[in-house]
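User: My instructor asked us to take a sequence, write out its structure as tokens, and then describe one feature of it. I'm not sure where to start. Here is the sequence I was given:
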Amino acid sequence: MLDQVRLRPSMWIRQGSLQDLQNILIGYATALSVHGVDEPFELSPGGPFSEWLRARLPELQ
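Assistant: Let's start with the prediction itself. The structure tokens for your sequence are:
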């Protein structure tokens, strides 16, 4: 998924904001869950990246 965003960022993130990227990632994680796709998604809320980010940016808590 992120490889596609990297190839054409302006197509996926029109305003170039982190909020837009977050919305895409949440939608992707939701689609995986709804369709029962067992795919590791390390960028999901509560996932490894989220925990790493929270440890470094306490204001996100």
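For the description part of your assignment, you could build on this observation: Residues 27 and 52 are 21 Å apart (CA to CA). Try explaining in your own words what that tells you about the chain.
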